[in-house]
């Protein structure tokens, strides 16, 4: 879009140049533009501007029939009007062909040649002819010198980048940005976008981060915060990644589920599980993330780590409904046991056993036994420990708990006998 706008502006300036005779009087003697020629060309443009492009081109052809009597300036005007009309109809190749004929005429006003060369560079870039773009830029700079060097640097960098010559593209865009920043301001946003892309292609990740830091400072767009967080992650600068994501979240910039998930994981691995749970809950509630097994497990792990028992149990129960094995119910049983919710722990452990496919089924019998023991239900506890001994993963612990439960049962019986005597 910007390329086309620049091209149109350049062409419009040239059209205005033609409307005055003053520009014909330059250092290099340029022939005058005769009124009768200009009036015919202006009539052709009027037809085109009113929607009759074919009529405008037909009018130009009438002018062209008298080309033998036209001077270089008048011919250049004719080719320019042809180019302008073809450009308006999006026939870019034809437009380029005619604009190229403009700069081949000599002598013509310097302003006309300068504007046309730059338009040719822009149009060639849009057509993917990067070598021709650079050629036109070189011709343009020979006329301009250092004047408007930034304008040329940006276009040159774009052409070199599109050509795949990333190393060569870096210097001109850095010059353009450096000049703007040295003046106390900033370059245009698309300049930084290009600079970032070049550093990315050159695998200069640290430099990508530096450019994004500037983009946040100057333009403060949500995507730049998120991109910078991602780059910090690639650089293993985890604290900075978390800080960037947290700031983006607080500003309402994290709207995609994937970005919220990254924040959750960053909080969790940074040892801030409560915030991880909060963000995951928000993402699920707002349907930014699906309430699938993976996300519910992450939610449960966050609440477990944060010692939020009720929230952890709820998340585990929701996740377990989506699982075809008993592992999540087993985990819920452990959480409930630790929270001294013994009856609920027994129910969850039995559900895990019923569901099956447990990595360590003996552990669930241990949970049942410990929960029964805490309630002084000695016989059910001993029965559970006896079952646990059948599994290699639980045998040693089961035997220890069995001895302890037996001793507790005997002690309870002695006390009961003493109280009844």
Describe the model.
There is one protein chain. This protein is mostly helical and 421 residues long. Among the domains are: 1-142, Tetratricopeptide repeat domain (Serine Threonine Protein Phosphatase 5, Tetratricopeptide repeat), CATH 1.25.40; 148-220, Serine Threonine Protein Phosphatase 5, Tetratricopeptide repeat (Alpha Horseshoe), CATH 1.25.40. The protein is built from 22 helices and no strands. The protein has helices at residues 2-18, 35-49, 53-64, 72-88, 92-104, 110-126, 130-144, 149-163, 166-182, 189-201, 205-219, 222-234, 238-250, 257-269, 273-285, 293-305, 309-320, 327-338, 342-355, 361-374, 378-388, 395-420. The radius of gyration is 39 Å and the shape is rod-shaped. TPR repeats lie at residues 76-109.
CATH architecture of the domain at 1-142: Alpha Horseshoe
Number-wise, the strands total: 0
Structural class: mainly alpha
- Rg over CA atoms, rounded to whole Å, is 39 Å
Our count of helices gives: 22
Q: What is the N-to-C succession of helices and strands? A: HHHHHHHHHHHHHHHHHHHHHH
Mean pLDDT, nearest integer? 91
| The first-level CATH class name of the domain at 1-142 | Mainly Alpha
How is the biggest beta sheet arranged? none
Helix content percent band: over 70%
* Intertermini distance: 100 Å
- What global shape is seen? rod-shaped
Question: Which homologous superfamily in CATH is the superfamily of the domain at 1-142?
Answer: Tetratricopeptide repeat domain
The proportion of residues in beta strands is under 5%
Stated plainly, the CATH topology of the domain at 1-142 is called Serine Threonine Protein Phosphatase 5, Tetratricopeptide repeat
Stretches where pLDDT is under 50 for at least 5 consecutive residues are: 1-27
InterPro entries: TPR-like_helical_dom_sf (IPR011990), TPR_rpt (IPR019734)
Organism: Pseudidiomarina atlantica
TPR repeats: 76-109
Keywords: Signal, TPR repeat
